[in-house]
Amino acid sequence: MTTAPGVRVRDLTVVYKTPLGELPALRGVGLAIEPGTITGIVGESGSGKSTLALSLLNAVQPPGRIAEGSVEIDGLGDVLTLGGEALRQARGKHLGYVFQAAQNSLNPLKTVGKQLLDLGRSHGVRDGRVLVRDAMSLLERMGLDGARVLDSHQHQLSGGMRQRVGIMLALVLNAHLVILDEPTTALDMITQATILRIIREVHEERGLTTLMVTHDIGVAAEVTDRLAVMYGGRLVEHGPTKDVLGSPRHPYTRGLIQAIPRLSGDIAQARALPGRPPTLGTLPTAGCVFRERCPLRMEVCETDDPPTVAHGDRNAACHAVELPASAIRVERKEEFA
Predict the structure, then answer these.
(1) Four-CA torsion 234, 239, 241, 247, nearest 10 degrees
(2) What residue stretches are annotated with the ABC transporter domain (predicted)?
(3) Which of 79, 129, 212, 258 is the one with CA 20 to 30 A from 251?
(4) pTM (global) more than 0.85
């Protein structure tokens, strides 16, 4: 893999073993990520965002398992068929992952430099000095003192510094597909802006394909080229970020945008979505997963899974998307009269 790869997720289903049996955290997810793009995945907590991201590395751990589907990555093939040494080499060398809690991916007993050398040895890097030089260059590119950071333990670094260390470790072996899981969580606004700028600049300079998981629509709007919206383990809308946010087609996407607090104007315009997101135990086995909270709910939503409707380079999975606007208004009026 020497150039930005494309990714094709097809019919991906991930289940978790519970006292109630195996319940799906993802069901029938399909997603195409174009080479060289930054794709964001947004949705409320529990929507399946991180499970999808881990599936791209074939890294879903028990009690979860990937039950069906494929994840094809240019240069690697179907990652779900890889195992053992082949899978270990793919992770890190071809696929970089930045974890949500950066401190959890760092060994508290070792300096960052020692962990870097361990990473290099595990992937057959022969010249540690070149690896250290590249790591220092990346850290300094991100506004850090490379020598000081490599000589530090994780507790000696701030949250923003640890996050940048995570980005460095994901990139230092020249991975061209990078997955960032909530890279700005728990960071102050200034550090968050710095991290977002670094992500965009490094993405362009290194020619990456990047997937960013976030619950913050503002973050997605700032950085991403395309946006995928998830709810209840399903992909409900996908398309260019400016189009999805500017004219959302799925009622859940509209609800997320309407719930964003305003800094000016009428504060009452921000409206929280009614109800709560489903859990593994409350996900419906048939029909639309969003129907209990949807203002456009119709009778067909109770029994039939909504088809994914394509409009150009945009997709939305909603029965109402197929109806003319007049029909949607009638259904809504009858439902909530």
Answers:
(1) -90
(2) 7-257
(3) 212
(4) yes
Instruction: Quote the tokens at residue 176.
Output: 């061209």
Q: Is-contact 145 114, C-beta < 8 A?
A: no
| Residues paired with 32 in a beta bridge | 8
Which pair of tokens denotes residue 19? 């006292």
| Residue 63, preceding peptide bond in cis (omega within 30° of 0) | yes
Structure tokens at 119: 């990473």
Report the DSSP pairing between strands 226-231 and 38-42.
parallel
Query: Helices marked H in 63-158 — which ranges?
Result: 84-93, 112-122, 128-141, 146-150
Per-residue confidence in pLDDT tens, the chain, 337 aa = 568 999 999 999 999 999 989 999 999 999 999 999 999 999 999 999 999 999 999 999 999 999 999 999 999 999 999 999 999 999 988 999 998 776 678 999 999 999 999 999 999 898 999 999 999 999 998 889 999 999 999 999 998 899 889 999 999 998 999 999 998 877 788 888 888 888 898 899 889 999 999 988 989 999 999 999 999 999 999 999 999 999 999 999 999 998 887 766 666 667 888 889 999 989 988 899 999 999 999 999 999 999 998 888 999 999 988 654 444 443 443 333 3
d(CA 58, CA 259): 34
Check if the beta carbon of residue 298 is closer than 8 Å to that of residue 335: yes
Pick from 119, 111, 105: nearest CA to 59: 105
Identity at 234, one-letter amino acid code: R
